[in-house]
Amino acid sequence: MKIDKDMLRASWRSWYANDLRAVGPGWLQLLWTFVFSSVVGLCFFVLGLATLATGSGRLPSWAGAGQWLLANLVVSWIIGACIHGLFAVLVPLLGAERIRAFSRRGQSLFFAGVPLAGLALGWPMGAFVASNLILEKRWFPFRNAETVVGAFLLAVLVTFIFYKHFQAKARQIEAEKRVTEAQLRLLQGQMEPHFLFNTLANVHALIDHEPARAKAMLGSFTDYLRASLGGLRRHEAPLSDELALAEAYLQVQQTRMDERLRFSIDAAPDVRLANLPPMILQPLVENAIHHGLEPQLNGGRVSVRALAEGGQLRLEVQDDGRGLRAPPRKGARMALQNLRERLRGLYGDEARLELLEQDVGTLARVTLPLNLQASSR
User: How far apart are CA 359 and CA 362, in angstroms?
Assistant: First the structure.
């Protein structure tokens, strides 16, 4: 998996927002836990120095300060590892979908309770390691129960403050994701100007000389508009609707390009019942025509396939056009980049978009979780 700037940003946001669909490899999520725990440990170190300076007016030596910093980091790392481990165990055990189905109160209890449980488990372990192996029992004096209880309550308070901050940021990130999703769907539902004008111009040109073709083209164009506008009103659509939209689009293009375009659509009846967010397949088809076949004098063929296997839905659009090595046309693959970001926001690592070079042409493939539940109309 390629680790780039976009991947790092999406992975951090998924960790920060307590997203049950983590983005990026597992070690990257662990890295964010380590980084955050280090920051918390550093904050406690600074707080301790400030408290010491206020109380006794004396600061420790450089060597003592280094030991103190390391002790704070070790405690924070162990607490962070415990919290991370509890999430890693409980989320697969309970199931992400079941957790999402919790009430708002249930989700708050879960996402607050796990860090507190990790704190209760990790703090004594971290304090023991820091006291015995780093500071030689000069830190966390367990002989004083009031000190232990006070330090633990302070850690609980800090954990609660961080939780409330994360909860607010998670709501903000979720709102941003919804706005981005709405914007992408709106952009994808808008007609590309050259497609609209070319279609109308072709209908106008065919009316006098080939009225049958003009009528067929207008009918396909009407079907395309109906399907695309209908998709904007739904969060999910059956694959059969997405295939009908792709077929209407290809029929319009076939009428316009005549013999330069040939296409086929292949999907088993049970696969057509699968549900997915609208306008997932369409950008692949449009990209195959606009960037693959249209620039070629002889046009070519587009094959649309949908398969279900291993709990995943795989959508494939293959063309025998110019291929990935051809000089890109203006705005090439912008829609695919938007689609990639949309899939990442919806599914995290559970979905992906691949562009694969073929002996002739290109294969675009989207893989996402198979959903056979009733769609919301």
Answer: 8
Q: 20 and 44 in contact (C-beta within 8 Å)?
A: no
CA dihedral over 49, 54, 55, 57, signed as positive or negative: positive
Take residue 77 and report the two structure tokens written for it. 């790392």
Q: What is the CATH number of domain 190-369?
A: 3.30.565.10
Burial of 253 (C-beta count, 10 Å sphere; 0-12/13-18/19+) = buried
Query: In the chain, what's the furthest Cα-to-Cα distance?
Result: 99
Lowest mean pLDDT among 29-33, 145-149, 371-375: 145-149
Answer yes or no: are the C-beta atoms of 358 and 300 closer than 8 Å.
no
Sign of CA dihedral 343, 346, 348, 349: negative
Other C-beta atoms closer than 10 Å to the C-beta of 345 total: 22
Q: What is the pTM of this model?
A: 0.56
Residue 322 near residue 292, CB atoms below 8 Å: yes
Burial of residue 355 (number of CB atoms within 10 Å: 0-12, 13-18, 19+)? middle
Q: What is the token pair recorded at 371?
A: 């959903």
The Cα–Cα gap between 266 and 199 comes to 26
Q: Do the Cβ atoms of 358 and 323 come closer than 8 Å?
A: yes
Q: Where does residue 16 rank: exposed (0-12), middle (13-18), buried (19+ CB within 10 A)?
A: middle
Locate 202 and state its tokens: 């072709």
> What confidence tens digit (pLDDT) does each residue in 292-332 have?
898 888 889 999 999 998 889 999 999 998 888 777 666 55
Return the closest-CA partner of residue 249 out of 278, 226, 220. 220
Domain ranges of the chain: 5-184, 190-369
Dump strand ranges (E) for the chain. 237-238, 261-267, 275-276, 300-309, 312-319, 352-357, 362-369
**195-247 residue pLDDT tens:** 666 677 777 778 877 888 888 888 877 877 776 665 555 677 899 989 988 99
Please choose, from the candidates 182, 272, 175, 285, the residue with its C-alpha nearest in 3D space to the C-alpha of residue 234: 182
Torsion angle, alpha carbons of 80, 86, 89, 92, to 10 = -100
